[in-house]
Amino acid sequence: MVIRAKAGEEIFRGAQKNLREKEDFKKHDLVEASKALFTFLLGIAKHKVKNDKKTFTTQQIKLRGADLSEFVPPVQAALSVLPSSIGHSRSSENFPAFVPRMRAFSTKVTVMNSKAKPKKITVYAIPAGQGPQLRRSSSTNGHAQSGDAGEMHFLVKQEVRGDLRKDARVQDLNNVINRLLSGHGMGSSSSSSSGGEGGKGAQQQRRRLHLRTFSVTCLSEDCGILEWVPNTDSLRNVVMNSYNAQADPHSTKRRGRRIGAFADPNLRRTYEKCQDMYFKGGNLSRAVEMFDEKFLSNYPPVMYWWFIQNFLDPHSWFEARMAFTLSAATWSAVGHVIGLGDRHSENILIDTSSGGCVHVDFDCIFDKALLLPKPEVVPFRLSPNMLDAFGPVGADGAFTGGMISAMTTLWNNRDILLSVLEPFIKDPIIDWKKHRNHQKQVTKGNAGTSKSETETAKRHIRMIQGRLKGVYNLENPNHKTIVRNDSNSLDQADDMTHLLPLSVEGQVQKMIAEATNIENLVQVYVGWMPWL
User: Fold this and answer.
1) HEC-encoded secondary structure of 506-532
2) Distance of CA 319 to CAs 66, 275, 330, 353, Å?
3) Which DSSP category does 217 fall into?
4) What is the average pLDDT across 510-532?
5) First to last CA, the chain
6) What is the pTM of this model?
7) d(CA 322, CA 335)
8) CB atoms inside a 10 Å sphere around CB 434
9) Rounded to an integer, what distance in angstroms lies between the CA atom of residue 106 and that of residue 228?
10) How far is CA 487 from CA 171, 211, 275, 276, 285, in A?
């Protein structure tokens, strides 16, 4: 880490020296100001909050020789370089001009409730192209003013165990996948589509498939700034705020608040007793029966009603539910291919204005969730409330169709995806042994040698290649460590689905079956809340 920091300093000094020799003092001052900006943001990220304060104030940043509006704001829309402008204009014109620029930081910083205590910061925006004199006169005003175009919000955080560079790389991959799904000529998916009305229908559905992305900018090895995703709430909060309007007003099954009451010690203890039936007693059938009796029967899903209560006219209700279904299908397909884990109910956000879902926290990828003390043995999250939100047919309708369309696109463009993923996997800078999961880690031995890391990278690539050819290769590690003593136990040697390639339709059906299998749900960590 120290060596890379020194190398970065040398690059900065070399750039400034080169700019001084060319007498380009404007860019020289901009480079110098960028160091001050990084220092300011790192200070907020590393700020230690005392007495569990929810907010604190910070000094307004002062940049010498440059203005904050000269920096491109770290939002997804602004960081998309315009291909037509490359090589034909100044670097400052290569980015979209319609994105507002930053005027000043608010002096008030909000501390979020999660364990890592990330900070939410506000930046006051001004229209792009505003006069420099007006910008400079208000750049030190850390409050809203009449000429502002609005506000930008960001999350600044310091990672103790995780690595935000993984999140940044996954966002890059998601942007590539979005181009493939939109059919903008990056791959061969369009050529493999069948003709006629069926082919047109598949293309139209694929155009509705989309991964909502956000900017992740790394400030150092353990700190970064993330674009705030507006109008979103966690899956858990959405369920807790839902209620079944047709249930008896005094029924305990009417409101979703009981379902997501993770702080309830009785809820946790009951679930852990279900797990003990299998983990300690080897009786998975009894664990499933107890889970069904204590949770699935007592906590019926209510998320279907959230869409009815938040999208009042029929058209907006239908569109919101369809947006949720298709976005969930797309994330499920992509998440399984890259082995995305740690999909607890706080890492899946719901856009309260459109109904679409957004996934966050991409630290636990390439099947790392299988190595946790309580392995995450499902390919993706497809819990009861999600199925309830899909409608009466559950996963058998638009969700299955969306997954088939998404997987077909990924299959047909496997070479493109592997060309993006292979450098990512083999990146020597990223420590794949670190991840920020909330479960206690079990450390075995010292860090691996370069040889073992190479073998791990090759194994990851083989795993992804198999999934892009129809192989369901997500193997449950509990099958090797726990001996079942119930009569319904299945000899794992008889299950050949992890060896044989399936069709796209067969692979999707297999993934859905595994994601909704109660035998799998009862094995995951209590914080995952599989009953929700």
Assistant:
1) HHHHHHHHHHHCHHHHCCCCHHHCCCC
2) 46, 39, 16, 11
3) E
4) 95
5) 41
6) 0.86
7) 19
8) 16
9) 15
10) 46, 43, 18, 18, 8
Average pLDDT, the chain: 83
- Of 140 and 532, which is predicted with more confidence? 532
At residue 427, does pLDDT exceed 80? no
pLDDT tens string 493-506: 445 556 789 999 99
Q: Extract the tokens encoding 323.
A: 């947006």
DSSP bridge partners of 109: 56
Query: Could you tell me the sign of the dihedral formed by the alpha carbons of 77, 79, 83, 85, in that order?
Result: positive
Phi-psi region of 51 (alpha: psi -120 to 50; beta: other; left: phi over 0): left
pLDDT digits (tens, 9 = 90+) for 160-193: 777 888 898 999 999 999 999 987 544 444 444 4
Q: Which two tokens stand for residue 102?
A: 């930053």
Those residues whose C-beta lies under 8 Å from the C-beta of residue 111, and which sit 6 or more positions away, are: 49, 53, 54, 55, 56, 117, 118, 119, 120
- Report the SS3 class of residue 258: helix
Q: Which helix (H) or strand (E) holds 433?
A: none
Find where tokens 């299988």 sit.
370
pLDDT at 499: 72
User: What's the average model confidence in pLDDT over 138-160?
Assistant: 81
Q: How far, in Å, CA of 406 to CA of 410, rounded?
A: 6
